[in-house]
Amino acid sequence: MDLVVNAVSHEVDSAPLTSLLEVLREELDITGPKAGCETGGCGACTVLIDGEPRRSCLTALCMAEGREVTTVEGLGTPEALSAVQQAFIHHYAAQCGFCTSGMIVASSAYVDRGGSPDTGAIQEALGGHYCRCTGYVKILDAVAAVARGDDADTMSTAASPTSSYVSIGGTGNGGGGAA
Amino acid sequence: MTSTNSVLTPSTPDEVVAALAADPDVVVIGGGTLVVPQVSLGTPVERAVWLGRAALDSVDESGDEIIVGATASLAACSRLPAPLGPCAANVGDPEVRSQATIGGNICAPVPYGDLRGPLLALDASIRCATADGERTVDAATFFALSGPRIALDVRFASPAAGSFVPLQRPHTVSLTAIGISAVRGASGEVRLAATGVAPEARRLYAAEAALAGGSDPVAAADAAREDIEPYDDVLASAAHRARVIPTLVRRAIDQLGG
Q1: pLDDT tens digits along B99-117
Q2: Least CB–CB distance from A128: residue in B4, B29, B92
Q3: Model pTM?
Q4: Domain span at residue A24?
Q5: Are A83 and A111 in a shared domain?
Q6: Which domain-ending residue is among A47, A74, A101?
Q7: Most A-contacting residue of B28, B73, B95, B97 (CB-CB within 10 A), to test interface
Q8: Does the complex come out with an ipTM higher than 0.85?
Q9: Is the distance from CB of A144 to CB of A91 less than 8 angstroms?
Q10: Total domain count, chain A
């Protein structure tokens, strides 16, 4: 069966009901889509299929045949990151990083279809994506910035989490965050 | 790796009917949101029929009846009148709704199957394939079918008014414990139906009768207790269900207006 991923055609051997997630990660070694819950609940495996965000864990290989699959690897390159990727760096929108590729893929589809910078609209669009670091505020900031058309500077971050931590935490003797 | 499986991909509804008649034990796949994870978790599926190319995804609102193909996505269904539209919009998240289908939803076991409530309230009929061929039955009959069946399309008269009131859930819980659907029909009659008030979706006949008899919404919602069998599951306890159901029913009636 032929599968087109990031504009490259692959001949794959997996059975037709194998999840696209498993084909991508185990057969093609494309590991941007993360295997989180593998039951459609967490959003970490999200890819674009013909430009629409879809759960690769819920999509069988046979459903992706003849379609264009795009993973986070296909959105930009290390030398030329996409606007959403740059904004995630600038706004410090990743902690452990496990949800990040799914967040970036879904956010890219959101801004590509002209999504608004309104927080509620972004929350609705990303409602199926869980960040178990609970770093949602920075993610919403990053997506809103791209939706507004803000420039992102990947050599700096938009705000200093450390300074706000210290201002709330006083002398900063309560943990490593401000040390 | 997954074991070898074969997937039949019918290109017309007639081919779907023929596929089920030829192989009643075949595993049916609509959007894949329920079957694909089962395969990944190790459930062997040797033979499947996937409906994604069977020309069953249209939504036709042009006639007296609204006709919704079985593989219409929940995202497409979310644009239909209440109670069906808001119920579909309440399922899962945007990406799941773009992939999940109405046919898969109404054939899925509890705690899935939220759309059964609206379809009971809308007094919908369902054209379906069974091992004996094609037939059209009312929604309650379809939901009670025990043998192999595939929904082909769902049809109902556009309601004069409708409402859907779910028990709210946080975004990290993708299933809804209780959903109340209310419909006012063309001649003014009110039909109420619910998921999560009993082990299966059901009409709330006593509350309907109370409304027809002139009761106010509070009294009618209280009468809904006659038709419920609250149960415990991971989403809600029986005690919690019993406590909140009358409130949700009253809100659904209130939202009908008029």
Answers
A1: 999 999 999 999 999 999 9
A2: B92
A3: 0.92
A4: 2-74
A5: yes
A6: A74
A7: B95
A8: yes
A9: no
A10: 2
